[in-house]
Write a structure and sequence with these properties.
Helix content: 25-40%
Number of strands: 3
Shape: globular
Structural class: alpha+beta
Number of helices: 4
Distance between the termini: 31 Å
Strand order of the largest sheet: 2-1-3
Strand content: 15-25%
Length: 114
Amino acid sequence: MLNRAALIVRPKQPYLDWAAGLDESSILPGVDDDQTVYLVPEFDDDAAGERMIRRVYAEIFERELFSWHTDESAWPAERTYRVFTQWFHTEMHTVVEDLCDEEIVDDEDDLEGA
């Protein structure tokens, strides 16, 4: 078992509306598509989980925006916690089991070494 929790972030309608307004392609992120799973510090109860999300929401918000549109000038100017909760549904899981024999490797570390 890892000393981490898993946080899954799913887009809500305001995010989908933002994505739809970027171009005329009609391609939108799917609410039921695969979502990024963020490993976050473990926590003991719902209140601690809420505090943890408040600590990491800004980075997650930017990662979710970047995953859809890399031009930061098109991102919403207001990226507060309140807006984050309007744009995304969060799902927390406190038990994370690692069933792999291989070492966990961070792809970003691999890119820095290249």
